[in-house]
TrEMBL record:
Pfam families: GerE. This is Regulatory protein, luxR family. Residues 290-355 form the HTH luxR-type domain. The keyword Transmembrane applies. CDD domains: LuxR_C_like. Residues 146-183 form a coiled coil. The chain crosses the membrane at residues 258-277. The keyword Transmembrane helix applies.
Length: 357
C-alpha cells in the first residue's frame, strides 16, 4: 500500500516537472552563417516598432559565436511571452562595427516577430545571411504578407516622376495600407508596423489624424488590450502625443493671431468712434450758432424778441408796440417755430448770441 502511494507521488512529481517548460515556454533561435570567417558573432536585438532599418548597441539583448561550421544558437526562457519585433544580425566587416546591409548580392540581418514560445531556424543561404527562415510565429507570417502587399504598391509607384502624381501615390499607398490593415489584420503589432510604414513613406499623418482619427484610435486600443500600458503601447502614445501637440500649437497660434486681430480691430473702432464723437461735439455749437446767425426775422419779430429778452409780459409788449395782444401771440408763435423752441427760456438761450441789427 505504501509502495503504491509512493509510486503515485513520484508520478505526480514527474508530471509536474515535465509540464514546467510548457507552462513557461522556451524559445529557440538557430541556424547557419555561410561565411569564410569562423567564430563570427551573431547578435539578437529587441526593436522598437519604428527601428526596422536602425541599429544601435542598446538594442542588443544577447550575442553568441558560430562554431566551425557556421552554426549558432540562442535558446532559453528570457524573452517576452507577447509577440515582439526582433532582429538577428552579424557584422560583415568587424572593423566598421554595427552595420545593416541588404541588397541583391549580400545581406547580414533579418527582422522578425517572435515570442518566448516560438522557434526560428535559418538554413545556409550563401552571402544573403538570414534571408531564408522557418519561423513558427503566425504573426510573422502575416507580417510577410503585409510586406509583400506594400512592396507591390511601392513597385507600382516607383515609375511615377511627376511631383503631384508622386504625392498622390503616397496618399494612395497610405489609404490602401490602412484599408488592408482594417480588413485583414487583427494583431496589434502588425497594425503598429503598418502605421510605421505609412509614416516612413512621407505621408502627412497630422492632416489625416485631424480629418479622421478612427484608424489611429483603433491601433491604440488594440495595443493597450494586448500589451497593457507598456511596451509598444507607450511608444505609440508618445507618437500620437507629438502629433496632437503640433495640432494644438497650430490651433493656439491661429487663435492667438485671431485674438490679436480682433483686439486691434476693436481698438481702431474705439479710436474712430472717439474721434467722431469729438468732431460732432465740436460741430454742434457751430451748427446752432450758424442756424441762429443766419435766421431771418422780421422787424416786428426782432422787436418782440428783444422785449421778451427784457422779460416783458405779452400785455406789456402789446402796449409798448401799440398792437393787439393777439398779434403779439401770433408773432411769438412764429418765433417759436423759426427757432424750434417751446418756451421763453429756450427762446432766450437761442437768441443770446443773435446779431441784432
Amino acid at each position: 500500500m505504501l509502495k503504491e502511494k509512493t509510486s503515485r507521488v513520484l508520478f505526480l512529481i514527474i508530471l509536474i516537472l515535465s509540464a514546467v517548460p510548457t507552462c513557461y515556454g522556451q524559445y529557440k533561435i538557430s541556424g547557419y552563417i555561410d561565411a569564410e570567417q569562423k567564430n563570427k558573432t551573431v547578435y539578437l536585438s529587441l526593436l522598437k516598432y519604428d527601428e526596422e532599418t536602425m541599429i544601435t548597441e542598446n538594442q542588443i539583448l544577447f550575442s553568441t559565436e558560430t562554431d566551425e561550421d557556421g552554426y549558432f544558437e540562442f535558446k532559453g526562457q528570457l524573452l517576452s511571452e507577447k509577440d515582439k519585433l526582433y532582429r538577428i544580425h552579424s557584422n560583415i566587416n568587424t572593423i566598421k562595427g554595427l552595420q545593416l546591409v541588404s541588397d541583391n548580392e549580400k545581406s547580414n540581418y533579418h527582422n522578425f516577430i517572435f515570442s518566448n514560445r516560438d522557434t526560428i531556424y535559418f538554413p545556409k543561404s550563401g552571402n544573403n545571411w538570414f534571408s531564408e527562415s522557418q519561423n513558427s510565429n503566425l504573426a510573422d507570417k502575416k507580417w510577410r504578407n503585409l510586406k509583400s502587399f506594400e512592396e507591390q504598391l511601392e513597385k507600382n509607384n516607383a515609375q511615377i516622376k511627376n511631383k503631384e502624381a508622386q504625392q498622390q501615390a503616397v496618399n494612395d499607398f497610405a489609404e490602401k495600407v490602412k484599408s488592408y490593415t482594417e480588413k485583414s489584420i487583427k494583431h496589434p503589432l502588425l497594425k503598429l508596423l503598418a502605421f510605421s510604414d505609412i509614416k516612413r513613406n512621407d505621408y502627412n499623418i497630422k492632416n489625416d489624424f485631424e480629418k479622421d482619427d478612427a484608424f489611429y484610435d483603433g491601433v491604440s486600443n488594440s495595443l493597450k488590450n494586448y500589451y497593457g500600458e507598456a511596451s509598444y503601447y507607450l511608444q505609440y502614445q508618445d507618437e500620437l502625443s507629438k502629433i496632437s501637440n503640433v495640432i494644438l500649437q497650430q490651433k493656439y497660434a491661429f487663435q492667438r493671431t485671431l485674438n490679436y486681430f480682433l483686439g486691434f480691430l476693436v481698438l481702431v473702432l474705439a479710436v474712430i468712434s472717439a474721434l467722431q464723437f469729438k468732431r460732432l461735439k465740436l460741430l454742434q455749437p457751430k451748427q446752432n450758432q450758424f442756424g441762429v446767425s443766419n435766421l431771418t426775422l422780421t422787424n416786428q419779430e426782432e422787436k418782440i424778441a428783444k422785449l421778451i429778452l427784457e422779460d416783458k409780459a405779452n400785455k406789456e409788449i402789446a402796449d409798448e408796440l401799440f398792437i393787439s395782444l393777439s398779434t403779439v401771440k401770433t408773432h411769438i408763435r412764429n418765433l417759436y417755430a423759426k427757432l424750434d423752441v417751446a418756451n421763453r427760456h429756450e427762446l432766450a438761450s437761442k437768441l443770446k448770441n443773435h446779431p441784432w441789427n
